[in-house]
Amino acid sequence: MIYIGYAILFLGFIRLLVSMVNLLTNVYLPQDIHIENHPKVSILIPARNEEANIGKLLLDIENLSYPNYEVIVYNDCSTDNTVNIVKQAMHNNSNIILIEGGELENGWLGKNFACHNLALKATGEYFLFLDADVRVKHQLIEQSVYLMKKQKLKLLSIFPKQIISNKETLLSIPLMNWILLSLLPLILIRWSSWTSFSAANGQFMFFEAQAYKQLVPHSIHKANKVEDIAICRYYKKSRMRVSTILGNEDIQCKMYNTLDESMDGFSKNIFDFFGGSIVTGLLFAAFTTFAPLLLYFSLGIYASAIYICSIILIRIFVSKASKQSIFDNILYMLAQHFIFLKIMCIALLYRKRKSLTWKDRDVFIKQ
């Protein structure tokens, strides 16, 4: 029992160290940069029933400082007002092109199919895939091009700063970075060739076009429901340089509006935060839930108190790195953890059913 206690303390220390590294290594886009040349960037947006978001994003893009770009929107069989909003934006911005998508082909998931078809129409030197619910500002594209060239990257992904608009989403949205930034030093995605150090976010995927055409990643992973992480691993296996960083005010995203939406959304890929392993995910859930109690019985109250201090520090470091409220994440820490456990339960239920519904489509889950 004593050895279990020491193992828990060691793992807690590792998570604390990882969260500190992610805070101190400044994994953000460079600020106040200037580039001489402006290679053409194709901004590619898959859109399925995005009437609440698509107009805002297209207006954001029009107000960006980057001069050389095209915008291609793929209408993925929307049944709402998405198409009319895009057509209205086209009157104000001649750089916008609308593609009408057809029926989903066998073996493909919807977003992967849309992204692949967008890339076939793109003419830029870089392909920037954006989700419709992302908001962008200022020099975002200049900063991305600059970083791609400076670090000789073939793929850059960003976890946008998450917009937390109400108490419901405060209980869920911070969980994504709490897991990610306490388990994976983001700097190792670029520094290490190990595919285990892989993470990416489909909300922002910035590709060098030549490498994309060579690897056709969305086609290779056409049936993968977590294609962003799979593509990151695929690029690393192909010895292509990749980097994943955090967003600031220049790129934000409002993923969900309600607690139910966020739990359903996170449950579809929660185990992929743990390499796709259900066992690892459940062990992490058990470890973070019962560690203080196990430490109390194995090493005593002081060891348990030290561990509790470490998990509070982890929340502080992750909140600061994520540009989130430290106060709120400490105040609702316990409630967030119970939501995390509930998300795990929902994910297990989906695994048992072998499918889930996303964007009004059934998604098959491989066992």
What is the element layout, followed by pairings?
Blueprint: H1 2-24, E1 41-47, H2 54-62, E2 69-75, H3 82-92, E3 96-100, H4 110-121, E4 126-130, E5 134-136, H5 140-150, E6 155-159, E7 161-162, H6 167-170, H7 174-183, H8 187-191, E8 204-208, H9 209-215, H10 217-220, H11 227-237, E9 242-246, E10 251-253, H12 259-267, H13 278-298, H14 301-321, H15 326-331, H16 333-353, E11 355-358, E12 361-364
Parallel strand pairs: 1-2, 1-4, 2-3, 6-9, 7-10
Antiparallel strand pairs: 4-8, 5-10, 6-8, 11-12
Helix pairs in contact: 1-13, 1-14, 2-3, 7-14, 12-16, 13-14, 13-16
Describe this structure in words.
The two termini are 34 Å apart. The chain is of the alpha/beta class and 367 residues long. The strands form 3 sheets. The protein has a 7-stranded mixed sheet with strand order 3-2-1-4-8-6-9, sandwiched between helices. The chain has a 3-stranded mixed sheet with strand order 5-10-7. Helix 13 packs antiparallel against helix 16 (333-353). The longest helix has 23 residues, at 2-24. The mean pLDDT is 93. Helices cover 50% and strands 15% of the residues.
Count up the helices.
Answer: 16
Task: Briefly note the structural class of the backbone.
Answer: alpha/beta
State the strand order across the main sheet.
Answer: 3-2-1-4-8-6-9
Report the end-to-end length measured between terminal Cα atoms: 34 Å
Could you give a short account of the major beta sheet? 7 strands, mixed
Determine the mean pLDDT.
93
Principal-axis shape equals globular
- Percent of residues in helices comes to 40-55%
What is the number of E strands? Answer: 12
The radius of gyration is 21 Å
Q: Give the SSE order as H and E letters.
A: HEHEHEHEEHEEHHHEHHHEEHHHHHEE
